[in-house]
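Pasting as-is:
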Amino acid sequence: MKKFVRSLALATPVVVGMAFVSFKHDDRLFEIARNLDIYATVFKVLNSDYVDEINPNQLIKTSIDGMLKSLDPYTVYYAEDDIEDYMTMTTGKYNGIGAMVSSANGKHVIMMISEGAPAHKAGLRIGDEILKINGIDVSKRDDFDSDRLLKGATQTNVVLSLKRYGVAKPVDITVSREIVKVTNVPYYGMLNAEVGYIDLKDFTANASREVRNAFQELKGKGMKSLVLDLRDNPGGLLDMAIDISNIFVPKGSEIVSTKGKVQDWNKKYLTKEAAIDIEIPIVVLTNNRSASASEIVAGVIQDYDRGVLIGQRTYGKGLVQMTRDLSYNTKMKITTAKYYIPSGRCIQAIDYSHRNEDGSIAKIPDSLATAFKTKNGRVVYDGGGILPDILTDKETYSALASALGKNRLFFNYAVKYHAEHATIKPAKEFNLSDAEYNDFVKWLSDKEYDYTSQVEKNLALLEASAKAEKSIGQIQSQLTALKSKLTHNKDNDLQVYKPEIKRIVEQEIVKHYYLEKGMREASFTNDKELDAALSLLKDSNKYNEILKGK
């Protein structure tokens, strides 16, 4: 292999050098040929003279990744070894066991299990630490790649040796690999007797079918209005966004148009089927992590005044990617166009083609935003994602909660709780008693975690400013007194922030018993956007006034 790489590297400049003759009258092509020649020469010298042996595949991938990173985050190269990841992203399927593993500090812990997947059926638990895979000791390997070792051909077995809380000896479990389907709709159900709820988290190949099936089932249960949750949805396939929009808008409606460098790629996409329901009241939930295809669906609902959007401004990704097959079974996902939703606006928030002098990328300023109008004449704007009709504040956590989460203390306590309690109440009903919360507080007493409250941060800034202005001497005694009063006390803060901390612990525990569906149900008890949606759907007059622009 080494000889082949070296001979290839030696030959490349010759071939490229011939191109100089052909391209010397064309400045652009000449520059391309010249730089390819330089690149090949650099690679040849590294391969022949670098002190250590280089990995040609890894080095080339690193260089390609660096080149594409300078363009935008969505133009991506997939080496042959990464094709399975690409297929998972587009199809929502992969061969494996259906377990998400986190690797950190030499520990490889199962963080989530897909319901009904091989890992679930075999009895794996969230919190299990993987020690060995098919006899290979991974407990001391920081380079452990769960995707590579846990995935494999269907009907093949993988033997896991696990460290489980409360069990003295390692637990050996054999799991049979199968085709694992990553669901686009992890949860749907009735919020009350009349309001249905669909949580849409992806736009892979089966997304529209899953949403249609969920919608029809909820209609059969008496649904008279719908909450469509697009929060934290990063997007996916364009045709899925079109098909899902088609559920709610008539046949022949324009959903999106694309415009790029190549004229043949400039297209308008219309709905092809009769809608399932064009009248049912809809509330769409969004946040700043709703992107791409999810923004198309949200934008269609808003532009046609088909429903009301509640939440935070969306991410602002108005770019379209297409996949190009490359040589040697590799692929590249490349940004080819911008998309425009029915009102005519492009919601792309960042201009990757123009960078600041320092190389940074700035968002498109609000001053450059252009006004457009919805079907009913409501004013909407481009260049910054989609602004909901009803804005809510982004959920924030206390410094204490953030510290406990960062140090996995919520997770670790839930592992302990699950090991000590065979069953709990259904997800919607589960609550920690005061005694159980006090047990959590006691458990934390010997755990390492620290944090700085916002008041402490502000006080530190005040002290730094006073030092900079040389006035610290005048207020030093007051600052010292304030520090002594305001320095956080963990035990006290665990009581002050008890409602928040208790809620997070409850949701984490529920996840270990009822997985993703249970986690979603547990979150309903404290969801500002969902509460706002339910309140609006009760008030048909207000709902209609918003859509009419009153």
